C-alpha cells in the first residue's frame, strides 16, 4: 500500500529558512495545510520546528497525521554523528525513518565506511534508514548512486526530481534499483531553469522544482512503472520564500499536487 505525505520544505520551512526569513509559515499553519490537502503524513523538517516529544505527538494526532521520517545531512568520513544521534533520539519514539544524505560539497566520492557506520547506529535503535541522492552532494548522478548501492546495503530514497536534474531518468532508475528502493520523493523539475542558472544553488532558489505535471519529469510513465512498491510517497516542492512573498500560493500548490496524484494516478 502506498501512503502519501508532504514535508515542511514544500511550504518554505527548512534548515536555511526557519529562524532566518520572516515569512516562513509556522508549524501549526504548515501542519494544518498538509492535513487539509489530504496528505496522511509529514516529514520532520528542521529539528524542533514541529516540536519535540509529546508536543510533536499531540500536534500530529490533532490532525490525523503520521511522522514519516527526517532528513539528516552528514559529512560521511569525518566521524561526526551527533546530528544523526539527535535525530534518532526523536525518531525512535515514532518509528519513523531516518533519511540519510551526504552534506557535500562535490569533492570526491562519498565515504562508504561512514555510510555503513550511520546504518549501524540507526539499526541499533531499531530504525532502517534510506539514503537520499541529492543535487550538490557526492551522491548525485546515476553512477554515484550505483557506487553507493554496490558498496553498502542501504536502501535508496528515489527522488524523481533530483535524479532528473542530475541527468538521470526516473523511470530507468525505478527499473534499475526497484529492489533497493525503501522510500520515494516525488518531485517535478524544470530543466530550463537549470540550463539558464549559474549553478544548482541558483536554480534551486529560482524555483527549479515545480508543481507535479508542469515540469520535465515523465511522472505518468514513472507511476505506470511503479509496481509492487509499498510505503510512503512524499511529495516535495522545495520553496525558498523571497522577501514579501506570501506562503498562501505555495500552500495552494501543495493542495494542487495532492489533487494531481488523485486525478492522474489514483492515489
CATH superfamily: Divalent-metal-dependent TIM barrel enzymes
Distance between the termini: 10 Å
- Per CATH, which architecture? Alpha-Beta Barrel
Helix coverage percent: 25-40%
CATH topology, which one? TIM Barrel
The percent range for strand residues is: 15-25%
Low-pLDDT residue spans? none
- How does the overall form come out from the CA principal axes? globular
Question: How would you briefly describe this protein structure?
Answer:
The chain is of the alpha/beta class and 267 residues long.
Describe the protein.
Helix content is 39%, strand content 16%. The protein starts with a strand and ends with a helix. Helix 1 (27-37) runs parallel beside helix 11 and helix 7 runs parallel beside helix 10. The chain is globular. The protein has one domain: TIM Barrel. The protein is built from eleven helices and eleven strands. The protein has helices at residues 27-37, 53-63, 82-91, 112-123, 142-151, 160-165, 170-177, 191-196, 200-205, 219-225, 248-265, and strands at residues 2-6, 41-42, 66-67, 69-74, 97-102, 130-132, 155-159, 181-186, 188-189, 209-210, 231-235. It is α/β, with parallel strands linked by helices and 267 residues long.
Amino acid at each position: 500500500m502506498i501512503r502519501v505525505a508532504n514535508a515542511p520544505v514544500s511550504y518554505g520551512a527548512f534548515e536555511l529558512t526557519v529562524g532566518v526569513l520572516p515569512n516562513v509559515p509556522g508549524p501549526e499553519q504548515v501542519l494544518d495545510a498538509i492535513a487539509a490537502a489530504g496528505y496522511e503524513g509529514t516529514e520532520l523538517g528542521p529539528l524542533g520546528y514541529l516540536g519535540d516529544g509529546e508536543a510533536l505527538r499531540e500536534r500530529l494526532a490533532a490532525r490525523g497525521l503520521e511522522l514519516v521520517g527526517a532528513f539528516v545531512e552528514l559529512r560521511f568520513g569525518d566521524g561526526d554523528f551527533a546530528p544523526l544521534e539527535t535525530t534518532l533520539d526523536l525518531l525512535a519514539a515514532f518509528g519513523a525513518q531516518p533519511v540519510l544524505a551526504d552534506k557535500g560539497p562535490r569533492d570526491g566520492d562519498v565515504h562508504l565506511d561512514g555510510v555503513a557506520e550511520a546504518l549501524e547506529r540507526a539499526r541499533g535503535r531499531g530504525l532502517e534508514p534510506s539514503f537520499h541522492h541529492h543535487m550538490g552532494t557526492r551522491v548525485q548522478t546515476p553512477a554515484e548512486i550505483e557506487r553507493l548501492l554496490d558498496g553498502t546495503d542501504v536502501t535508496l530514497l528515489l527522488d524523481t526530481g533530483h535524479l532528473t536534474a542530475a541527468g538521470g531518468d526516473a523511470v530507468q532508475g525505478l527499473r534499475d534499483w526497484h529492489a533497493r528502493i525503501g522510500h520515494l520523493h516525488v518531485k517535478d523539475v524544470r530543466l530550463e531553469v537549470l540550463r539558464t542558472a549559474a549553478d544548482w544553488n541558483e536554480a534551486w532558489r529560482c524555483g527549479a522544482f515545480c508543481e507535479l505535471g508542469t515540469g520535465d519529469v515523465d511522472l505518468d510513465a514513472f507511476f505506470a512503472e511503479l509496481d509492487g512498491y509499498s510505503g510512503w510517497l512524499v511529495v516535495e516542492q522545495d520553496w525558498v520564500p523571497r522577501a514579501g512573498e506570501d506562503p498562501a500560493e505555495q500552500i495552494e500548490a501543495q493542495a494542487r499536487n495532492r489533487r494531481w496524484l488523485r486525478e492522474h494516478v489514483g492515489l
